[in-house]
Amino acid sequence: MGILAKRSKDKNIIDTVFTMVKKANDAKVKYGIDSVIDVTIGSLCDENGKFTIFDSVSEVYKNLDNMDIAPYAESFVGNNDYLREIKSWVLGEHEEKFRVGAIATPGGSGSVSSTLKNILDPGETLLIPNIGWGPYKIMAREHDLKIETYQLFNEKDEFNIESFRERSSEIMKSQGKVLAIINDPCHNPTGYSMSKSEWENVVSIMNDLSENGNFILLNDVAYIDYAVKGYKESRKYMECFTDLSSKNLAVFSFSCSKTLTKYGLRVGGSVFISNEQKNIDDYMRANEFTCRGIWSNVPKGGMKLFSTIQENKTLRSKLAVERDGYVKLLEKRSKIFLEEALAVGLEVYPYKEGFFITLKIKDEKIQESMEKLNQQNIYPIQVAHGIRIAICGSPSKKLEGLAQKVKNIIG
Ligand SMILES: Cc1ncc(COP(=O)(O)O)c(C=O)c1O
What we know:
- The protein is an alpha/beta fold.
- It has 2 domains: 6-54 and 316-410, Aspartate Aminotransferase, domain 1 (Alpha-Beta Complex); 71-313, Aspartate Aminotransferase, domain 2 (3-Layer(aba) Sandwich), CATH 3.40.640.
- The protein has 16 helices and 12 strands.
- The chain has helices at 16-31, 55-62, 66-69, 80-91, 107-119, 135-142, 161-175, 196-209, 230-234, 256-259, 277-295, 300-310, 313-344, 363-375, 396-399, 402-410, and strands at 37-38, 99-105, 125-129, 146-150, 177-182, 214-220, 249-255, 268-274, 356-360, 378-379, 381-383, 386-390.
- The strands form 4 sheets. A 5-stranded mixed β-sheet has the order 2-8-7-6-5, sandwiched between helices. It has a 3-stranded antiparallel β-sheet with strand order 9-12-11.
- Helix 4 (80-91) crosses helix 12 (300-310).
- The radius of gyration is 21 Å and the shape is globular.
- The structure holds pyridoxal-5'-phosphate.
- Pyridoxal-5'-phosphate binds next to helix 5.
């Protein structure tokens, strides 16, 4: 028997990231920090390797009233100001074009997890990319869901719309409903961002398949504020959703972890759109129940922090300026690595922007390559079908010459 429920008895997180971070830290102690290239760190750091704190955010947080932090939130679904501001921030100029709902969640993670829970029943299948953020699989397991994957890229290194179509239609045929995850822009871990025409194709597949059931798309927009093309352009594709069939719903999983670099505050949200009010009402009702039934409510101070900044033009632009400096820094770091990778013939997945670059490595070679890199004091992270280089956490000077070194080591 044992103390655990049947569905929990085999749960066990194998944290490859934590293990590698520890190995890198041990190496720093043993060989000195300058001898180690640590590209494990998945959070944003400055050129001295220090965790990025936006002063424009910290100042506002320090000045929040105690009563903005200590009491419960205004409701299970979140503070009204916060909900208004995340809808407006995530959807930008497109907000008025759809029926819209929002709930506050503990980080973007809470948004993804509650979406899986409320859209699919245990035993049903979730569609995710074959290369993607690891916790999607953990969350699926948590809700007793099966996983199916679409190939993220085709042979031309574009979004593999054919694979997305095939897998989605198989699932629609077998379960009469599809829940698919896309992580765009700045896909983790490849740094890919989809074009507007790729998005148009996704929406048209959603609409075609909706003849046989509901198609729910979850776009994980955790990194939306790190798109090089800026606020307005990075949301341009959202106008495709004006054509969304009334049977469909799109959920955007938003995260203050990246947008404010406040990972520990655990504030995020689901912003969901449809052209049918009933979808919004149903989704809202079920999620309100989940909020109360699982986490009760999200930290009030974190929500107040976001809404205070967003509703004030001066504060908002101060943050935008600070964050843009980091978008430029990521661009600079990516160029250093990618130009050299190209020159030495080190293959990478199609990076456009964001926190990570991933090396294309054959599955059977990944383990061996990791070991060889570690032996030379280079510490990246193993991911599905590749090896991730976290340019977000690594000062530029550590990235200079890295592609050449990696190429020499793994061939
Ligand atoms: C792809 C992706 N989605 C969502 C998240 C959610 O993070 P949080 O729950 O801290 O908002 C992360 C954080 O690493 C991420 O990389």
